[in-house]
Design brief:
Helices cover about 60% and strands about 15% of the residues. By secondary structure, the chain is an alpha+beta fold.
Length: about 450
Amino acid sequence: MTQEVRCKIVRRVLDFARHHGGEPAVERIVEVAGLPYDVLHDENAWIDHAVEKRIFRELDGILGIERAAFRCGEHGLRSGSFGALEVLVRALLRPRNVYARLPYLANRLAKVGKMKLVELGAHSARVHYRYDAGFESVPEICENRKGMLAALPVLWGLPPAAIEEDACSALGAEACTYRISWVEPLEDRMRLRCAAAGAVVGGGILVAVAEQVVHIGWAGGATAAAVAVFGGWIVGDAWDQAREMRAVRGVVAQQNEKLAQQLLALEQKFREVGQLNTVLEGQVAERTAELAREHDRLKKLNELSRAIGATLDGQAIVDLALAALPDLFGATGWMLAPAATAFDEGDASASPVPPVNNLDAGDRLTAAAMANKMCAAEELHRTATIGDRHSLTVLLSSAGDPLGTLTILRPHILGPIGPRDIEIARLYADIFVSALVNARLIERAAGMAPPRPPLAGHRAI
């Protein structure tokens, strides 16, 4: 087994698991690691980085708590799981000294990457952790490292450090970048300086009372000097605590400002999500209404198919088909124009498509011209604008032979002719033509093909 990660890390994971999940949780971690408990709990042993990744990836699921890896990092220092390394950390006297030596301490725990101190201030630091070639992290290991960095000031009875991760190698960055801010413990230097000042004041008092020593005695002068020294110490202590409180308030103010900025960013995100939800709700509602309209059109088209399929009367078929146009397409005008083909070459009357329209003379001429152009170009459909209405002309054909055209006009307010309108119109044309052809064939077979008068309510072309 290669020496990549020291078991000091895994040992505190086991202790943390025992504290939160009992022996069953410890046994589950040992099972995931695939190594004996004695090896994992030996702080001087080493394991592969792959074993560490397996343990941390499963930790949340094993313990059933959120951010288990981060809390495990905090717990390790507080519970004393780091043994001799914790003694070394305490010997550095204050958090700043520890953060200044993070590269050395990190290398004692793992050999899979290098930590670099980029910036060090009085109460803040910035560090990088870059993995060596061949190694890569997982988010849970980065969370555990953040927990350890946050817990260092706790060794001196101070609040945990604030940790901000600007970049994470587990999420694709070249290195993990951490910004750390903390509070230093109270210092004795100011107390000593004030006590020394008190001693000077006490000496002055001794000199001042020297002439009166016969009256108050040397004991009284010494007492006055002692009082001055003690007062200086008290003043120094109060001054030091006030200075420390100012530092704490400064750090807290910075953290509150960062939290306020994060809250503003979250509020902005929530507003954006709300706006997006509004847009999506509108789109869903619009799409739902559109699907309902399409369902209604297909239902009416199916009803039309059954109705015209139940009759063999060509005129009844035309009446039923034209009566369905307003519901299917919102049509307010239409024109059927036969083609001189199919049944008797050159005889327009032989086409089963009757010449019917409800257009005025100008619109009728425009629609007829567009239908002729479409047929000449061998197009299946054509859209245009006639007057103040949108128009759609579709070819009526049977077995590849053109029988005529159908032109539909609808108001601009209902919107332009779309792909779905064209698709429905093609289905409508197929149903209409099939019924007309069947009716004509049966009429011819029975010798029943009398001349057709213009339909009631329509003008013949």
